[in-house]
C-alpha cells in the first residue's frame, strides 16, 4: 500500500510542477507583451512631445 501512495504522490508532484512551470511561462509572456506595449506608447509620447517643442503646437493625433 505505501508503494501505491508514494507513486500517486510523485505523480501529483510532477503534475503540479508542470502546471507551475506553465503558469510561469504564461506570466513571462504577458509581462513581455505589456512591456512592449509600454515601450511603444512611450515612444509615441516622446514623438508628440518633440513635435510640440519644434512647432510650439501639439502634434495631430
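Q: What amino acid sequence fits the structure above?
A:
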Amino acid at each position: 500500500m505505501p508503494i501505491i501512495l508514494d507513486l500517486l504522490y510523485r505523480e501529483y508532484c510532477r503534475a503540479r510542477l508542470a502546471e507551475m512551470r506553465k503558469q510561469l511561462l504564461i506570466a513571462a509572456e504577458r509581462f513581455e507583451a505589456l512591456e512592449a506595449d509600454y515601450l511603444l506608447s512611450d515612444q509615441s509620447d516622446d514623438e508628440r512631445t518633440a513635435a510640440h517643442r519644434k512647432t510650439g503646437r501639439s502634434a495631430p493625433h
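Q: And what stands out in the fold?
A: The two ends are 71 Å apart (CA to CA).
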